[in-house]
Amino acid sequence: MATQMEKGKEQVGHLFLGIVVLTWGINFGIVKSAYQDLSPILFAAIRFTVSGILVFMLTLWREKGVRIRWEDLGRVICVGVLGLGFYQIFWSIGLKITSASNSALILSTHLMGEKIFPQQIVGGALILRGVHRGLRT
Length: 137
Prior knowledge:
- This protein is mostly helical.
- The chain has five helices and no strands.
- The chain has helices spanning 4-34, 40-63, 73-97, 100-108, 118-136.
C-alpha cells in the first residue's frame, strides 16, 4: 500500500501531466493564430530560440554545467537537426495550410512502436476521413 507521501507525489505528477496535455492541446490553436502576424518559419525560429535559451539556462542552473560526450555529439546533432529542425519546419508549414484541428488529429495518429488494436484502426480511419472532409471544405 502506498504511503501518504507517495500518494501526494503521484497526485502532483498527475497534475503536471494534465498541464502538459492542456499545453499540447492549445498549442495548435495558438501557433495557428500566430501565423496571422508571422510566417511559420520565422515563428518557429523565434519560438525554439527562446525556449532553447531558457532550457539551456535552466539546465546550467540545475546541473551546474552542460557536457556532451564526444561519442554522443553526432546523435545530439542528428536529433537537433531532424527532431527540432526539419520536423518543426514541416509541421509549421503543414499547419499553415490546414486547420489546427486537422493538424492535431493527424499528429494524434502517431503510434510508432505501440500495439494497435482493431478499435484504434477504426478510430484512425474515422479521424482520417474527418481530416479529408475538412480539407475539401
